[in-house]
Structures are given as structure tokens and as C-alpha cells.
Design a protein that fits this description.
There is one protein chain. By secondary structure, this protein is mainly alpha-helical. It has 10 helices and no strands. It has helices at about 1-15, 20-25, 45-50, 50-75, 80-95, 110-120, 120-135, 140-160, 160-180, 180-190. Helix 1 runs antiparallel to helix 4, helix 2 (about 20-25) crosses helix 4 and helix 8 (about 140-160) runs antiparallel to helix 9. The radius of gyration is 16 Å and the shape is globular.
């Protein structure tokens, strides 16, 4: 069982390391998202430089990187803590991909995809929070930050599992850290709103 868990964690990291943004942009003949727009290989930046269809492809690809390994963990009847660790491993792969010199995205879509495999209730709460904040303030980054910060609290109230809560706290810290440039722009009033 331990070997299975270790192999799945490694697989999740390697899957997370596949950059959907870079692949989609290359196939679509678009500029490298690491050197264009906000220089972030994520769906929001690809939306800016390539349009909604390219962004949708990136979003689905990034979400699948979290969804697939967590779904496998569930299929293998691994416990909630292991499933949460698999999700965290996939997100770390997305943030720091071994295939792309550890220069990855910000982990939002991969987190959400993994949550849908892990707990549809948590995924729904995260999505609802993102949507509410986005409708009010019109900032994608702020919406993702608020939803991710609240995620460990949601997990505690829904699952009552301290180990899972701690893992999601680590995940939230990593995602917040990767959004530090967005936080600076939000404070300075320079962050672009949705639709801009």
C-alpha cells in the first residue's frame, strides 16, 4: 500500500508538471505564455493572448491534472489524507514543473479539478466563493485567493479531518505565494479586471 501511495504521489507530480498553457499555445501558434501578457502559464493569461477557446483548452487541461490522479486515489480506496496529498502533489507539479525548469502557473484550475474528484461539496463551495467574489469585484486573482484561503475552513466543517485540513492549508499557502505579484497589483490598483 505504501508503495502504491508513493508511486501515485510521484505520478500526480509528473502529471501536474505537464504545462497545458505552453502546449496549447504552441499547438495554436500563440506566443509563449511565460514571456507574453502576465508571463504566467495559466488560463487567464492565455485568455488575454489567445482568446477564449485557447483558454478553455488550458483550463480543462490544468483541471484534468488535478482530477485524474485524485480520481485514481479514490478508485483505489485510499484514505482522505492520501487523496489530499495526491491533490497537493499535482498542484506542486503545476506550480513547479520539472519539465519546464520549475516555472509553472498558479495552481487554481489544478486545485479545482482535484477538488471535484476529492469532494464535490468542497469543489462547489470553492466555485461559489470564486463566482461571488468575481461578480462583486471583477478580479479573477482576488476570487481565486479568497476561495483558496477559505478552502481549509470549508474542509474542516465538511470533513472534520484535521490531516486533510492541514494539507489544504499548505496548498493554500503555496497558491497564495504564487499569487504574490497579483496581490501587489491588487494593493496598488494595477490588477486587470475580468474582461480587460
Amino acid at each position: 500500500m505504501l508503495l502504491t501511495q508513493i508511486l501515485l504521489l510521484i505520478t500526480a507530480y509528473l502529471l501536474g508538471s505537464i504545462s497545458s498553457a505552453i502546449i496549447v499555445c504552441k499547438l495554436a501558434g500563440l506566443p509563449d505564455p511565460r514571456t507574453s501578457g502576465s508571463n504566467n502559464p495559466g488560463a487567464t493569461n492565455v485568455l488575454r493572448i489567445g482568446g477564449k477557446y485557447a483558454a478553455a483548452g488550458v483550463l480543462l487541461g490544468d483541471a484534468a491534472k488535478g482530477f485524474i490522479p485524485v480520481l485514481i486515489a479514490r478508485f483505489l480506496n485510499l484514505d482522505e489524507m492520501t487523496q489530499a496529498l495526491v491533490l497537493l502533489s499535482a498542484v506542486i507539479g503545476h506550480l513547479y514543473p520539472i519539465f519546464f525548469k520549475f516555472q509553472g502557473g498558479k495552481g487554481v484550475a489544478t486545485t479545482l479539478g482535484g477538488l471535484f474528484a476529492f469532494s464535490w461539496i468542497l469543489a462547489t463551495l470553492w466555485s461559489a466563493t470564486w463566482l461571488i467574489v468575481a461578480l462583486i469585484f471583477r478580479y479573477s486573482s482576488l476570487s481565486a485567493l479568497v476561495a483558496t484561503i477559505l478552502l481549509p475552513f470549508f474542509a474542516w466543517f465538511v470533513l472534520h479531518n484535521s490531516a486533510v485540513t492541514m494539507i489544504l492549508i499548505v496548498l493554500a499557502i503555496l497558491v497564495i505565494y504564487r499569487h504574490r505579484s497579483n496581490i501587489q497589483k491588487l494593493i496598488a490598483g494595477h490588477e486587470k479586471k475580468l474582461g480587460q
